[in-house]
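Table 4 source record.
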Amino acid sequence: MRSNQLIKRCLLIIAILAQCSLMLQAQNKQPYSQRMTQTVMTIWKDSLTTGDKWTYDQGVILKGIEGVWQQTGDKRYFTYIQRCMDRYVTPDGNIRTYRQADYNIDNVLCGRNLLTLYKVLGAQKYYKAATLLREQLRKQPRVPEGGFWHKNRYPNQMWLDGLYMGEPFYAEYAAAFHEDTAFNDIARQFILMEEKARDTKTGLLYHGWDQSKKERWTNPKTGQSPNFWGRAMGWYGMALVDVLDYFPAQHPKRVELLAILNRFAAAIVKYQDENSGLWYQVLDKGYAKGNYPEASASCMFVYTMAKAVRQGYLQPTYLPAIQKGYNGIIKKFIETDANGQLNLNGTVSVSGLGGKPYRDGSYEYYLSEMVITNDAKGVGAFILASVEVERLPDVYSGMIKQ
């Protein structure tokens, strides 16, 4: 009797294990974009929240998930985006925890998700909430040359990060609601940032620029910060390719933006690691003590180049760099745990300039910040990069399969 029960239990365990094995096989056949999106929806089951605060981290991930929704047509992904935004957007179109008076350009990014919801659903609350963010840009403090301050508490400073936080939303809003003259202002942000932050020797862009030259982290002659932070340049590149999607074809400044993008791509390819295909936390010091390949920057560069090639903004000569970079990301940073969940390692949690405690922009500072697993910015950038790679059949077919 006992032996029969033991046999039944063993058979049941075997059946369960077989079912789990089949599920894992099915998961592994899915594209990486879908598998990483499932990770997001597992970790943040109800909605994507980071300290219950309106923040750009959500916007990066949700733009990636929007791409997965467009690829698959699966309404679960759209519902997830809506649920995340509805946690903050009130029925009358206000945004919970958002304060316009902070003039923090980071807070503008999620406006892109609001525009998607408005275009699909037509609900006025999303339009009103997006318009609040558009009004912030109208009033955002500027340097005398016209560039947006990064935040109200960082006077006269422009950071590369801010271009991604503000400009793609600005361009999409302007295109949707026929603010044609806004594109002059949008172009000015990129042109000014490149003019003030680009290093002529390397072609790379410094993380920040202080117009007043008063900050302790600035070069007293140029106002530039001391180093080339990988993710900062990643933000700038993604901003360029996303803005170009909305920029009028005949606008005279479009040619200048394309020229900036081509200079940008030529520079980052020079600093792609030959062996791993990845990019380092501090871009030009790949073999310096303590430096390390960083996941979010690597994903952002792959996204920028892959989308630019697909859209015709860059030549197909960049395809080998895209494939090498993406394969390097899979090999170095992606792991599958015992439950079949995809995880992304190797993302630096944060890096900035100034503030309290003071961040001096030194090489040592950039290496001091914590590196974590499944950071929202890295995960979002990976989903974005994966969607773009999956749209390039020649690159996708040459990927490492895990």
